[in-house]
Amino acid sequence: MSHTASPAAADVRRPRITVLDVLRLLTELLAVGSLAAWGALSWPLPWNIVVAIAAPALAVVLWALFVSPKAVFGVHPFARALVELLVFLSATVAWWSLGHPWIGLAVGAVCILVGVLHGRRAVS
């Protein structure tokens, strides 16, 4: 018995994943990880556990609602960029408050650069 793909399966197009998509995923993970580290290191017990879970969870929820490719709410591209900048800014401020301003500036610069490049590709 030969296995042939149905015509409907042949018409399905898979999204092409680029290097920029991978970099965007890595910057998202970096921002969420930065918020988790800030929550764990900046607060005394038991609040460090609460904040280490709540801060990244809030960032992930905001990202899923407004910025992700399958966002729950379809908003204007400028609103998407504003939410994305808010998440990246919070990661930058988290590093700054941990006493590592240069790491915070580097994280912010890399995240914003990748976000701008990805945004330009999405708009064009």
Automatic annotation (TrEMBL):
Pfam families: DUF2568 (PF10823). InterPro entries: DUF2568 (IPR021214). It comes from the Bacteria. Keywords: Membrane, Transmembrane, Transmembrane helix. The chain crosses the membrane at residues 22-41, 47-66, 78-96, 102-119. This is 4-amino-4-deoxy-L-arabinose transferase.
